[in-house]
# Entry
Amino acid sequence: QSLKQRGDHCGYNTFMQSTKGLNRIVYGPGNEDLGDIWGGVISYEEQKKALQESRVYFYYGTAPASYTLSLIEAMMAGIPIVAAGSRYTKDLYHQNTNEIEDIIEQGRNGFVGQSIDDLRSSVEFLLKDENFEEAKRIGQEGRKTALAMFSKEVILPQWKSFLDNI
# Structure
């Protein structure tokens, strides 16, 4: 949502530099200013389909949030994640609020990059995986991680405990 307008808080420059010249698309409101890489505003069903059919999901987050619902949704869909690491939000806010390295284990259930070169290399690796086998494996490991951390079976008891103790 409004990627370019929100700039570094959503990783606009990082995304643009890391994916320049690659097949990329951005969905959501307020992104009309992205020109030919804007995919429009899509329905929930279209979003699920786009996530399931994509080769890679570039994730920056919304600084200073440690991670957002979009990461959880992408991981649940089984799409391999390439995420900007804590260097980006730490440099922006002079504090380390990015927990992405606590969720993604490099090369097992996604990729975390601390530089444009790292991010681009991971995106290219996933796009060039001809049979999509390694990308599928990584995406499925990401899905397992998301289910272990964020499924209803995990979250509901946490919410119940929290609300019972208010």
